[in-house]
Amino acid sequence: MKTSTTVKMTTSTKILITLFFISFLCTSTINAQKVEVKGVVKGKTEEKAEPLNGVNIYLKDKSVYTSSNRKGEFTFPKTLNVGDVIYFSYLGYLKQKVTITKNSTNLTIVLKEDDNEMLGAVGTNKRFSSKRKGQ
Amino acid sequence: MQKAFFLLFVLYTTLCFSQKSDFKHINFTKADRIASTIKSKRLFNLNKLTLDLTKNLDTDIEKVRAIYKWICINIASDFKLYSKNERKRKKYKKDSIKLAEWNSELKRDLFSKLLKRKKTICTGYAYLFKAMCDVVDIESKMVYGFGRTVDVTEFDPNYPNHTWNAFKINNKWYLCDATWAAGISYPDENRFIFKYNDGYFLTEPELFIKNHFPIQKEFSLLGDKMPTFQEFIEMPLLYGGAYTYLNKYISPKKMYYSLQKGNTFNFNYVFKKEVDPKNLKLVFVSGVSEKTYNPFISQKNDTTTLRYTFNKAGYFDVHLYYKEDIIATYIFEIKKDNQN
Predict the structure, then answer these.
(1) Which of A2, A101, B62, B87 is deepest in the core (most CB within 10 A)?
(2) Which of A43, A95, A120 lies nearest to residue B82, judging by beta carbons?
(3) CB contact under 8 A, B184 and A89
């Protein structure tokens, strides 16, 4: 009885050990692909592209995010895997999606201006007054 | 069978009762408190700001509320930029290239001012609302169209002047206007004062259309009942007070009326519960003379009717007031009996 249990245990331990090694192999391959993502974000208007201050840079689920500095520079706070997707968004510009490759260590992102018109009727409490002929 | 009836009932209620009543069971106190406690000098980290505002709220409507309220009590209306924009838009009206260049230049200015100094014009408010809703994955839209205010009672149908928002919760669209809710601009004094008006959040579409005519018709949320542009420009002029005190606007449907002397005229509204009709008054302005009248007031179900008999000929601007707050303006041209 006792012996068979030991044998059984050994089999499961073996499986566990194999699994452990497989998982180790997997993580090490992922580790090899880790990329530290850095770069500059610019915004393109009609004529020129200028660095943008305060661009939101994030993973889709917003678990990790950062924003660009005055020179448009950023360093993503977490190293990313090849194939990960990060988003760049800034008011007035179209959101951009970037898929990380092993060359993403020095990105230059140029956001395109959103072609919305800027309007602005203000709320006032000024009372209406008729403008009539002869007055 | 019972299930089918229940589903029908649910469908019926969602179709009929709109906007505010959908969220009757939700108290906005918590969302409002969060909105008033979170400060951010600049808006360079919109993700963080938005997540801070919403992380302790359970429902989407509360999240939207916290975002909206935060914008309303923190973002100032930039009157200088507004008037500069108006000037340039007029100047380049016929030069589409120059207009596009100006628009691009303005945008750069506008967004950097919004992020650095928390000041903007209405498209900026609408942008910010949408960007913050995006952060928490709530679907929203910027709605472009015509905002009817005292300064713009005449419209060029080619030139929309206002932007507001629509957002979607449980597959249904709702309306809000952060620009007009934030406060009051004093154009002559070049000043803006924060004064939050709660009436611009989850507003009934029938009231909202009185001074918000969307270019994309579906965002009137009125379906077939959407008025034509002509009907819109003939509507009475409503002020912020209408949003503060009214639940529903019934009539008069137009701004201008021509009547014979001696005619009696009815004004019908559904006021909010806290409104005491005794404080309603009509102010008549003709040239330099101004007179206040207390109209005959009657109440049927939830509708309040103000009745007034015009006994004097003349041309009058008639303003409806609740205490010191102006709600609406009409124009009455009263003709003498023998006049044809």
Answers:
(1) B62
(2) A120
(3) no
Partner residue opposite B123 with nearest CB, options A95, A120, A124: A120
Question: What one-letter code names the amino acid at A68?
Answer: S
User: Exposed (0-12), middle (13-18) or buried (19+): which is B99, by Cβ within 10 Å?
Assistant: middle
Asked whether B146 and B93 are in contact (CB, 8 A), the reply is no
CATH number among 2.40.50.140, 2.60.300.12, 2.60.40.1120, 3.40.50.1370, domain A35-112 = 2.60.40.1120
Q: Which of A58, A119, A131, A135 to mutate to test the interface with B (most CBs of B within 10 A)?
A: A119
Count chain A–chain B contacts defined by CB atoms under 8 A.
Answer: 151
Query: How do the pLDDT tens digits run along chain B, 340 residues long?
Result: 565 655 554 444 444 446 788 898 889 999 999 999 999 989 989 999 999 999 999 999 999 999 999 999 999 998 788 888 888 888 888 888 888 888 888 888 888 889 988 988 888 999 999 999 999 999 999 999 999 988 776 788 888 889 999 999 999 999 999 999 999 988 778 789 999 999 999 999 999 999 999 999 999 999 999 999 999 999 999 999 999 999 999 999 999 999 999 999 999 999 999 999 999 999 999 988 999 998 999 999 999 999 999 999 999 999 999 999 999 999 999 999 765 5
Q: Do B144 and A128 touch (CB under 8 A)?
A: no
